[in-house]
Task: structure prediction
Amino acid sequence: MASAPQETAAKPREEWTGQVGFILAAIGSAVGLGNIWRFPGVAYENGGGAFLVPYLIALLTAGIPILFLDYAVGHRFRGAAPTAFRRLGGRAGRWMESLGWFQVTIAFVIGLYYTVVIAWALSFFVFSFDLRWGDDPAAFFTGDYLRVADPGFSLDFVPGVLIPLAIVWIVAIAVLAAGVAKGLQRANVIALPVLVVAFIILVVRALFLDGADDGLNALFTPDWAALGDPNVWIAAYSQIFFSLSIAFGIMITYASYRRRRSNLTTPGLVVAFSNSSFEILAGIGVFATLGFFAYSQGVAVSELEGLTGVGLSFITFPAIVSQMPGGPIFGCLFFGSLTLAGFTSLVSVLQVVSAAIQEKFGLSTRRAAIGVGSVSAVLSILIFSTTTGLLALDVVDQWANNIGIVASAIFTTVLVIWVARKGPELRFHLNALSTFRVGGIWVLLVGVLGPVVLAWMLIARIVVLVTEGYGGLPPWYLGVFGWGTVLVLVVGAVVFTLLRWKRSPDDFTAWPGYPPEPARPAAQKGARS
Result:
């Protein structure tokens, strides 16, 4: 009989090996494709240098506070998003769990198409050696490479996308299967320093190109009148919000792997400011390069097209690489950096899904990784490696990010602060061992300012999508791939919530590291809060 407890005891919960491992993994998640191809263009279109004012305010009033909220929820309740929210909700845990599964389904959908962009970057890394895109990168990208067809659904697979996509999925599954310390942490410890070094080399090279100063002037010359435009402030909050990987389960899951007695807020500040620093570095590198391109074309930077997103990375940059001295080396650095930045973010997105499945169904790390990865890989290949993949990717990304993630953040802040009334408890948890203490204003920022700004963003975006459509695409197509994506998120959350747990999340003996240490009585909090 004495051996029975050992046979039924759960394995110790996986943990990061230390604070540095966690910080590198969190930075790797935050620094992704959007830092390189989204921030420079958003800043340029929204006041240039003046955009840094609302950007910094958004970082301090929404980005960092909600990042702290994710950390506090994951670390205190020791689980992936569904587990953590169920425990947080107490008697209402069942429907709070559905919020966690809503975040998991968002991560699942994002993982399906995020891998495809990494596969493109990997292909263009190889293409850089011989400048295979030739004199017309736009025709090469949409025609020769992607073979873009009219809107619809096709099973006409594109070998140039399918092969690198399969490679990305195999590597991603291997990293997930290796676990938190040996997989995720090790991948970030290797990839993140390589990314930073490669990108710094790229930026330094760009600064010495002819016309680089024109590009930097275009980016940083402030248009102070833009600060009076509400859309500029929405753009700033949007950029901060999407860039920090908050409100769709990543930081909740990552924080749950931290040791019980860990500093939470100081690493959070390191992650937030490291992410913003990389965005500014990316802006310098991208616009110095665009300045050279404008100089070589004999036009102003303002006359260039394709300054953000897919067009910037896979059309404009190849055209620049073809014209600059040492172009193949520059191309390898750029697309290599894009691949690494995307991959470190990808594994964090997939870990959200894998961790939730592990906990709900009692699976091992390896079985969950292989199961989640295999299903995701098949769907990713079927939908996004075909001739209609580019259009589907663009639409799904628009709805998953601007509707799904923003709605998730609104529900999270309102339910945690106002419905479950966990603000004071989570604030105390953040302050218990952290060197940077958060005051009562943190609860106000998360519970009042955050939901108000996010609701404004969500309503404004829905109005535009409903009244104006998107990208000139047919309404039926937006209904299937756009609003259909939102339906998948909701249905997925409901279905997984209704499924039975293999081990109850409320059974303390089955979950090492849970329950959390009780919060001190309110009368004792004053000295440390």
